[in-house]
Amino acid sequence: MQGRLFAVTGAPGCGKGTLIKGLFAQDSHIVPMSGMLMNLRQDKDVGEIIQETMESGALVPTEIVNDLFLRHWMQIRDEKKDIVLDGVVRTPVQAEHIADVVSNDRSPRVARKFYILDVVVPLDECMRRLKGRGRIDDQKDEVIERRFRYWKAFAKQSHTALKSHGFEYLSVNGFQSPQDVLKEAVEKIAAMG
After folding, report:
1. What is the pTM of this model?
2. Which is the most buried residue in 6, 60, 99, 163, by most CB within 10 A?
3. Cα gap 38→95, rounded to integer Å
4. Range of the domain at 142
């Protein structure tokens, strides 16, 4: 892989993070862009907003996500490697912002192709996974339900926004072993060239 950008999407608990770790372990040419919000916690005020938001199951404010994405993108945009996004395409407004930034970036060093890599898993399985992983935002049923409501409300619109900027859609069956999810994703990515 080289010079592509993958926006990894899917319901909370579908295995996005596990898939990204697998892709990164398998291919040193990947530049992961996950956990950006965690890095922003260094700023005390913003860090408190993020922590409170995660604990409530709400979405981190779009202005914070978009600002952080833009700053991080400017640091890595010239990488001649694939870039994998996780946790930054939660709403149509965020998707539109990300798509605008990357599709209008005419960095002479890297011409990128753009893909949505959607991990598809039944919601009852996602719920089971969330309850088993022990993160602070997975402790209460009402918090998990709120996260699912946001995902249901925004997923299709976010994909539509990305597709309108030339992102191609790939789905991966996330309802199988992590090794099989990784294998399927790698095969689909390889088929894209």
Report:
1. 0.84
2. 6
3. 19
4. 4-191
